[in-house]
């Protein structure tokens, strides 16, 4: 039974991968360029928020290294299993974890953490709705 379950699980994973491993090169390049441009424009705000506004104390080298290593490991494992994760979400969570480890939950800036959590919660439904509306408009005028 255990062997049959493993074989069935591998077959399911292979079937699932075939649905999302299809890539169009021009789309990958365009998305990469857009992400790069967005980071070039908004880098300072991102750096200040992650480095200075998550915790009440400034981020130390040890905290930064710990958060980065944890983020890299999390992203690596997620990529291995084909799970989509946001690098910003993972890194900001890592920074928050180091702040809690240093001074407890009281070492976090609640306003910043709340803003980040709200952004995380709204990302999926807002993007879902925006894409649906755009698709509808494109289909209507195409």
Task: Outline the structure in words.
The protein has one domain (2-141). It is 82% helix and 0% strand. The protein contains five helices and no strands. It starts with a helix and ends with a helix. The relative contact order is 0.08. The model has no long low-confidence stretch (mean pLDDT 89).
Offer a few descriptive terms:
single chain, 142 residues, mainly alpha
Alpha plus pi helix count: 5
Reported for the largest beta sheet, the result is: none
Helices and strands, in order, run as: HHHHH
Supply the helix-strand structural class. mainly alpha
| Mean pLDDT over the full residue set | 89
Number of domains: 1
Helix content bin: over 70%
Q: Round the Cα radius of gyration to an integer and report it.
A: 20 Å
Number of strands: 0
Task: Provide the fold topology.
Elements: H1 2-20, H2 25-53, H3 61-80, H4 87-103, H5 110-141
Helix pairs in contact: 3-4
Concise synopsis of the structure shown:
The chain is an all-alpha fold and 142 residues long.
């Amino acid at each position: 039974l255990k062997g049959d379950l493993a074989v069935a699980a591998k077959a399911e994973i292979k079937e699932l991968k075939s649905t999302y491993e299809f890539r169009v090169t021009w789309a990958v390049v365009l998305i990469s360029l857009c992400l790069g441009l967005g980071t070039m424009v908004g880098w300072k705000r991102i750096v200040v928020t992650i480095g200075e506004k998550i915790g009440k104390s400034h981020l130390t080298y040890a905290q930064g290294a710990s958060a980065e290593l944890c983020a890299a490991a999390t992203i690596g494992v997620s990529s291995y299993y084909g799970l989509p994760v946001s690098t910003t979400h993972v890194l900001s969570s890592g920074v928050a974890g180091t702040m809690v480890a240093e001074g407890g939950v009281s070492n976090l800036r609640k306003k910043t953490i709340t803003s980040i959590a709200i952004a995380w919660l709204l990302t999926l439904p807002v993007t879902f709705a925006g894409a649906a509306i755009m698709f509808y408009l494109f289909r209507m005028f195409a």
